[in-house]
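Try it yourself: sequence plus zinc ion, in.
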Amino acid sequence: MGLPSTQPDDHVNAIDRLSIRLKAIQIHSPGGVDKLCFEETGDPVLESPGDVIVKLRAAAINRVDIAIRSGQNSAPRSFPHIIGSDGAGTIVAVGRTVTHVKLGDNVCLYPVTGCGQCDFCSSEQEHMCAARSVFGERKHGTYAVYMSVPGKNCFAIPAGLSFEEAAAFPLVYVTLWRLLITQAELRPGESLLIVGGGGIATAALLVAASLATPIIIASGNAEKLAKAKMLGAEHGINYRHTDFAKEVRSLTGKRGVDVVVDCVGGESWSKSLASLARGGRLVTCGAVAGAAAATDLRRIFWNNLKVFGAAAGTREEFRQLLNFFAVSGAKPIIDRIYPLHDAAKAHQRMEKGESFGKIVLRMDE
Ligand SMILES: NC(=O)c1ccc[n+]([C@@H]2O[C@H](COP(=O)([O-])OP(=O)(O)OC[C@H]3O[C@@H](n4cnc5c(N)ncnc54)[C@H](OP(=O)(O)O)[C@@H]3O)[C@@H](O)[C@H]2O)c1
Ligand SMILES: [Zn+2]
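Structure, out:
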């Protein structure tokens, strides 16, 4: 059967040129949210025989998008540039060497790519590759109606998830899955402290609640604490008013918790270490409040602690995550959904730290 080749015109029939004006959020230079321009783009082109073109129905906002938009992330790229790591949609064109997905499949995207040749890439650990990047970093990303992506990064959307939900989870949830399940090996019944109330924190809440883990959440926002309790957190601590390490000691009879998820950093970091029980594990993948955090090393060796870091996760961890959603029926926690052209409002909400869960963009124009 006549699958499209890499020639640009081969996929034209799959994309109804008459019914669409190809749109995307593009940046022409780094800066504030005013740099997010909603405008027409060129036709998507299959860049290699292993690529597919996805008609995106939804994308999600990540902190890395803000870093790229504002110029804090210096990944080499040319302008105009389309940001966005997370997306879900329908395959509308397929390169000739792609076999595991086909036209019309609804897919979500594993967001990591690597050099394709090193030992890490050869063993499906692109997130460890020296040339690792996520969509929207070096290559165009998901804030677009159409996107060319490696076919191997496309996975069937777990049954029961909408396009918005399928776009909401990839980067944050695969990173959290690696941290909590692969590295910290959180077991049912172990106690967990989650610091912050954003994307990573709510992913931790969802996954840990499914393990019947007693959860304490520390947030600077009373409304978020109330929502977290409704989703399974046993205790909420407002870290603006209370030293959460002391409060955790008090809540656990001085023992401390088994695992802490802290992607806030800054002043939280030393308190997170102080919240751990002996033999406890601290996991991190971010530092929104400051990366140069103080560490009392004695806490680590006296208390036999382990500290794990992760930048995204493996394809195998992504598969485990898809399976988790399919089997548990759990759905990623979504804060708000904006139309694509309102990406600036979405960025502002995340930058202010207002979101509880993932902020999603919908391509419904
Ligand atoms: N390495 C990776 O692969 C990877 C993947 C995903 C995310 N990350 C990183 O992990 C970190 C968290 O990501 P996220 O998606 O959870 O972000 P997010 O949704 O914006 O959540 C961050 C949360 O941190 C809390 N916070 C405390 N102090 C803050 C401050 N000074 N500025 C902003 N927020 C502050 C806020 O919660 P409260 O208001 O409740 O306190 C906020 O909701 C980021 O650094 C991100 O880049 C890394
Ligand atoms: Zn590589």
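One thing you can check immediately is this: Residues 114-115, 117-118, 120-121, 129, 131 surround zinc ion (ligand 2) (CB under 6 Å).
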